[in-house]
Write a structure and sequence with these properties.
Layout (H helix, E strand, L loop, with lengths): L6 E5 L5 H10 L3 E5 L3 H8 L8 H6 L5 E4 L10 E4 L14 H12 L5 E5 L7 H12 L8 E5 L18 E5 L2 H14 L4 E3 L3 H32 L3 H8 L23 H11 L5 H11 L1 H15 L8 E5 L14 H11 L3 E5 L12 H7 L2 E4 L4 H4 L3 H6 L4 E4 L6 H6 L3 E4 L3
Length: about 425
């Protein structure tokens, strides 16, 4: 079937769904987006987006894409792709409510022969234990009335090289036909390798494994940073030294904590699902505990540094450089900086925030205002605007202490200006 005669519905037009919808439109599909946020739909239909991604800024205005909050749009489509979030609650327990709600819309509006693809990150077993039973209860049979596949999303916000157009993907399904259809679709849409998996459960496990791998390695270096602080060893130098080994080592870097919608969230999906089957993921739980401790540890570093210059944390003006979870983007999802701010407020510090990429979440109107009003700083997000600051500007505004939560600034240059510098294990 030619792309131009196929209609695609993307459920959820966020960081995952909107780029995919645009890419499908570029590749010749007739694309509809199902999104509950009507203001977002109005922007998208006008060729605009609040997501500051180069791919979207460049291509959204050029393509035909219809965004709506009417689920009946599903009925007219050949392929339906779920790209809704899979969050955790305040107790770190997985919340599949968005997935269930979206799937209910698909079931109610199923078009005979549809290919349904789940891109939302889910733990192994969700397609079998949550998604498929909803179709079963409505009287629909896989392989007869519809096909069900899983292709876990892969997206790296702000990456100039890897985006929705070229990141390799994996696909799993319940049937051979469903797998063939899903692989064929992604091969038409994405200029990257599409790897078929033996089962849908394997496909579900891939994404969880990828992000758990990252989480564990980041926890390892974060714990080493704490250890090396005590031992008076610079972990940045040690990692650089270890990186000279041309095999069996992959550098990961310590920081003020792990953010984004994937790494701090996905391991909990595997932890809880394995627990339900009688297995206790001790290693993953420890990694999550270590990484969750880093925002508070960053505040402890600041408090110790202030003590050295005979200043209390209580009542001191602390400037936060950046609040998004990652450099050069305006994404606050699971940002550890929010936890840093909350810890500082509990210590009754006066907190000022400036982030040039998300000014609506800033309490200072400019970098100049933040520096003017601050006694100490935490570099919480390594935006390029902050990395370009001349350390003399810190000195000019009387900054006494600078905690580099990303180990991204020039330690020697800052110390030359008489400012007490502390990094994370650096």
């Amino acid at each position: 079937m030619e792309n131009k005669s196929q209609k695609v519905c993307i459920i959820g037009l966020g960081y995952v769904g909107l780029p995919l919808a645009v890419q499908c439109a570029i590749k010749g599909y007739e694309v509809y987006g199902l999104e509950n946020d009507t203001k977002k739909n109005d922007l998208i239909n006008a060729g605009k987006t609040t997501i500051n991604e180069e791919f979207l800024v460049e291509n959204l205005p050029k393509v035909k894409l219809t965004a709506t909050d009417d689920p009946s749009i599903i009925k007219k489509c050949d392929i339906v792709i779920m790209c809704v979030p899979t969050p955790i609650d305040e107790n770190y327990y997985p919340d599949l409510t968005p997935v269930k709600v979206a799937n209910e819309s698909i079931v109610k509006n199923l078009n005979s022969g549809q290919l349904v693809i789940i891109e939302s990150t889910i733990n192994p077993g969700v397609c079998e234990e949550v998604i498929k039973p909803m179709f079963d209860e409505a009287g629909f049979t896989i392989g007869k009335d519809y096909e069900l596949a899983h292709c876990p999303e892969r997206i790296n916000p702000g990456d100039p090289k890897w985006n929705v157009t070229n990141i390799p993907r994996v696909v799993g399904s319940f049937t051979k036909k469903g797998l063939e259809q899903a692989v064929e679709f992604y091969e038409k849409v994405i200029d990257g390798q599409i790897m078929p998996m033996k089962s849908i459960r394997e496909a579900e496990a891939v994404k969880i494994m990828e992000n758990s791998f990252r989480d564990i390695n980041l926890a390892f270096v974060n714990e080493l940073a704490k250890s090396f602080d005590v031992l008076d060893i610079d972990i940045v130098d040690v990692i650089k030294g270890a990186s000279t080994k041309p095999f069996a080592f992959m550098p990961h870097w310590p920081s003020r904590g792990v953010g984004g919608h994937c790494i701090p969230v996905d391991p909990y999906y595997l932890i809880e699902r394995a627990k339900a089957s009688g297995f206790d993921h001790e290693f993953l739980k420890i990694a999550r505990k270590v990484n969750n401790s880093m925002p508070e540890y960053t505040v402890e570093i600041l408090q110790d540094a202030l003590n050295k210059v005979k200043m209390p944390l209580n009542g001191t003006n602390i400037g936060i450089l950046g609040i998004s979870y990652k450099a050069n983007i305006a994404d606050l999802r699971e940002s550890p900086v929010i936890k840093i701010v909350n810890h500082l407020k509990r210590h009754e510090a006066n907190v000022l925030i400036f982030d040039p990429h998300t000014k609506e979440h800033s309490t200072a109107t400019s970098l100049e205002e933040l520096l003017e009003k601050s006694d100490a700083l935490i570099l919480a997000t390594n935006h390029k605007e902050f990395l370009e600051i001349d350390p003399a500007l810190f000195k000019k505004h009387g900054i006494k202490v600078l905690v580099d939560g990303m180990n991204a600034l020039n330690k020697e240059e800052i110390e030359k200006h008489g400012i007490l510098y502390k990094g994370i294990g650096h």
